[in-house]
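ok posting inputs for the adenosine monophosphate job
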Amino acid sequence: MNLILLGAPGAGKGTQAVQIAEKYSVPHISTGDIFRKNIKEQTPLGIKAKSYIDRGQLVPDEVVVEIVKDRLSWEDCKNGYLLDGFPRTIAQAEALDKITEVGTVINIAVDLQKLMQRLTGRRVCADCGESYHISSFFGSKCSKCGGKVIQRDDDKEETVKSRLDVYVKQTAPLIEYYEKRGKLVSVDGMQSIPEVFAQICAELK
Ligand code: ADP
Ligand code: AMP
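and the output
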């Protein structure tokens, strides 16, 4: 099962990816998580990526493509994978087509006007990356691993504005790209988290 999760920042890709990866036994590959791990470890990649991420801009295509190409060559991807947050540009999608046969692309469709609230209210575990929202999370420790729950630097209002703008200009055209190739299914991301998951599972049957 070679799956891609497409959607604006805050659409719920990471939230759904954890459940999809578990149910279908495929590795969850999030380019955002890979960058955040490298930033934490202060690797050369992390230092380079941070300068883009902090401005709400995309990391250059050639950098991301190399990372994904390498990651997809790992043994655990032999029976499939779930890409979350990649591709984000047409150039990345074209590069991906040269690396692997893409199966289904799940587009989580959301009302862009409502995303500011979701993103500025998002909190994540600094250790395992588990995602929460201030509307239903009131503690400070991750319920999965006990790690510290924090706000991502790029979830501040000004950066969110740039990220949404980048999504509209650079990533949204991928909907048509995959539609034309007969690979796209769309789910309504404005439903509750379990409802979105149920719709994704129904589409994957
Ligand atoms: P993405 O990975 O697409 O950027 P996340 O999965 O991190 O998005 O979700 C962004 C925020 O919205 C998180 O705080 C998450 O808890 C919340 N969220 C995710 N899915 C839903 C949903 N269907 N309804 C309401 N809030 C959601
Ligand atoms: P995410 O966790 O998916 O929201 O990604 C966080 C940030 O990492 C994005 O705002 C980008 O700056 C960067 N990033 C993640 N994936 C990609 C990608 N496929 N192409 C370019 N930049 C990316």
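notes: The mean pLDDT is 96. The domain at 2-27+74-110+162-204 is CATH 3.40.50.300 (Rossmann fold).
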